[in-house]
Amino acid sequence: MAAATICLVLAVLLQAVMPILFGRMIDATSDTGGDSRRARMRAYSQACAELAGIVGVSLFFTAVRAYVFNSAGAKVVARLRVLLFRSMLAQETSWFDAKETGDLLSRLASDTQKLQAAATETVSLALRSGISAAISFALLFYTSWQLASLATAVVPFLIGATFIAMRVVKRLAKESQAALARAGAVAQEGLANQRVVRSFGAEGFEVGRYAHAVGDPDADRKTLAKDSSLALGLRQAGVQAAFITTTAGLGYASVLGVWYYGGLLVVRGQMTTGDLVAFVMLLLTITASLSVLAQTGASVVEAIGASVEIFAVIDREPEIPNEWASKSDDDRATELKLVTGGAAGCAFENVVFSYASRPDLRVLDGLTFSIPAKARAALVGPSGGGKTTLLHLLERFYDVTSGKVLFDGVDVRAIEPVLLRTKMALVAQQPALFSGSIRDNIAYASRARGLAVDDAAVEAAARAAHAFDFTTAFPDGFETTVGERGVRLSGGQTQRVAIARALLAAPRLLLFDEATSALDAESEALVQDAIDALCVGRTSISVAHRLSTVVNADVIALVQGGRVLGSGTHDVLLRDCPEYANLVRRQLRAADSSASLA
Ligand SMILES: Nc1ncnc2c1ncn2[C@@H]1O[C@H](COP(=O)(O)OP(=O)(O)O)[C@@H](O)[C@H]1O
Ligand SMILES: [Mg+2]
User: Are residue 307 and residue 379 in the same domain, yes or no?
Assistant: First the structure.
């Protein structure tokens, strides 16, 4: 970088003296009396040769400078993107609850791009223009101090105009960044949910939403949404036009003044024509440099806006701190080895919890419940009662508002989240797969931990989750690609791949959140058998939507309204807990009526 900066300074120095040489060439051609024609030819040729030499050398410096600055910029932006992505993933789940993916994507793509521009092209442009303006300025006075004083009279006005334009641009740039991010969020949602959009015939509606965020180019100025990125762009265009006109006007005024007064000086014999030409060229260089400086100023201001957003994420301390990301590979390996022993009993002690996005709603309201090590537990109860939330607290996706969640008798808040999560595996209610093959998905935990993928283990997990038969029935078998989020599989297939993925993580606590809800009755029975077999010798918690699957559980908890209304075995609950008895009766009735339909 230092070498590149030296190259930059040298190239600019050389370019700055070019007008003086032009001036000399002109003076060499004109008859100033005295000199012979031959002497003038010689002086002219010498000035030309010097100019050519300077051009050549300055081109070389320019090439070195351009390469070094631009390649450094590419590295800066790559590093920044990775850093930003790492910081995003380190944030707690609540943070994501409050964000839109499209917004985050635009931070990664366009904000970092703006910083790259500022860090490289802009720095180099600003240096070049600044140095060139300064040198040309000194040469102005060297050529003719009278003219120079006249020409610089406009400088204070230029500075004033720049200052005002800068402030306006800064505000607009920040707003337009936000507008683009909003548009990105709308687009991301529409594209990711295109099936829903299509099924409701809502293509036009979504395009309208996006066009509203971007700004409809055909709408007239009055109906255009004020905060659309187009409206902001138009305002920015206006400010820029006014600014450029002002600076150019001031520049021309000073050039015209200089031509006029300079001409007088030449006629009076106080200045040569060549000097006047050189002077005007220097002045034009200064004007051009100053206008470039003003523009780079605007892009620096934009970059500052972008960097504020970027570093707000990078510097943010996650509320559920995750030291894992900053640990060395060796430390991670050592800590992973420590994760042995413990029989994975869990307990909830008087847990109160509200989601940060809805602080007034107590989702869990003094919930107490414990699961002995190696027991099979089941959570039942009406939808919205807080069952999924309980699993989220165990995984430390969220931390309790008050009370305690214990794992192996230890408050989960005292356990490094990554380590805690290696001990448990969650099959979510709506499992999401990654684009890639079925094998890659099942082996996700091994790949994430940097372990070799064991094909035999992948197959065994697939068999245990009843995913083997349908997988091998595909022409590509385990290499079948599942599509983004698993769209190329059926719901039941996705669930079974997700179960296999959880098994391969070899957890000591298995969490199933209505893991069989997307299966037909027959495969549900099969998968339930598989789950039952897997749970032997392990602690497990299943959220069940069908009571028939949990009657054999060691402990069943009825979760309703954020509390456990009763817990125990099926028989105990039937006897002691009227709400549970009700639930059973209702399901039996539903089963009866569907049986009579069949
Ligand atoms: N991320 C979230 N932010 C805010 N509220 C949530 C969030 N997730 C769930 N809830 C609310 O918490 C309550 C319990 O939800 P959940 O635990 O998913 O219920 P269940 O799994 O028993 O059906 C519901 O009222 C739901 O609207
Ligand atoms: Mg749920």
Answer: no
Predicted local distance difference test score (pLDDT) of residue 334: 66
User: Cα of 422 to ligand 2 centre, how many Å?
Assistant: 22
- Cα 191 to averaged position of ligand 2 atoms, centre (Å): 26
pTM of the model: 0.80
Within a 13 Å sphere around the CA of 440, how many CA atoms are in the beta-carbon half? 12
Secondary element (H or E) of residue 512: strand 509-513
DSSP state at residue 397: S
- Going by alpha carbons, the residue nearest to atom 3 of ligand 1 is 355
Q: Quote the CA–CA distance of 486 and 463 in Å, as a whole number.
A: 19
Residue 470 domain-assigned (yes or no): yes
For residues 119 and 100, what is the distance between their CA atoms, to the nearest angstrom?
Answer: 28
Contact residues for 287 (Cβ-Cβ < 8 A; gap 6+): 247, 248, 251, 254, 255
Q: What is the pLDDT of residue 592?
A: 67
Q: How far is the CA of 455 from the centre of ligand 1 (A)?
A: 38
Provide the 8-state DSSP code for 481: B
Residue among 362, 389, 400, 511 whose CB has most ligand 1 atoms within 8 A, to mutate: 389
Q: What is the CA radius of gyration of the chain?
A: 36
Q: Tell me the mean pLDDT in the region 10-39.
A: 80
Structural domain that includes position 267 = 2-314
**Ligand found nearest the CA of 380:** 1
386 touches ligand 1 (CB under 6 Å) = yes
What is the model's pLDDT at position 397?
A: 93
Is pLDDT at 87 greater than 70 in this prediction?
Answer: yes
For 501-530, write each residue's pLDDT tens digit: 998 887 889 999 988 777 777 777 777 877
| pLDDT tens profile 258-290 | 889 989 988 998 888 888 888 888 888 887 888
* pLDDT tens string 178-225: 888 888 888 888 998 888 999 888 899 999 899 888 887 777 777 777
- The answer to whether residues 102 and 35 belong to one domain is yes
Would you say 400 and 453 are in contact if contact means Cβ atoms under 8 Å apart? Answer: no
With respect to residue 542, please indicate whether it lies within any of the assigned structural domains.
yes
Same domain, residue pair 289 and 380: no
pLDDT(104) > 70:
yes
Reading the block at residue 344, the tokens are 């994975």
**Backbone φ/ψ region at 349: left (φ over 0), alpha (ψ -120 to 50), beta:** beta
User: What is the domain count for the chain?
Assistant: 2
pLDDT of residue 342: 66
Residue 208 domain flag = yes
What are 424-465's pLDDT values in tens digits? Answer: 889 887 888 998 899 999 999 888 878 888 899 999 999 988
Neighbours of 4 (CB within 10 A): 19
* CATH number reported for the structural domain that contains residue 294 in this entry: 1.20.1560.10
Name the residue at shortest CA distance from atom 25 of ligand 1: 384
Residue 125: partners with Cβ closer than 8 Å, 6 or more residues away: 292, 296
CATH of the domain at 498: 3.40.50.300
Polymer length of the chain: 598
* One domain for residues 391 and 507: yes
Inter-helix orientation angle 229-267/203-214, to 10° = 30
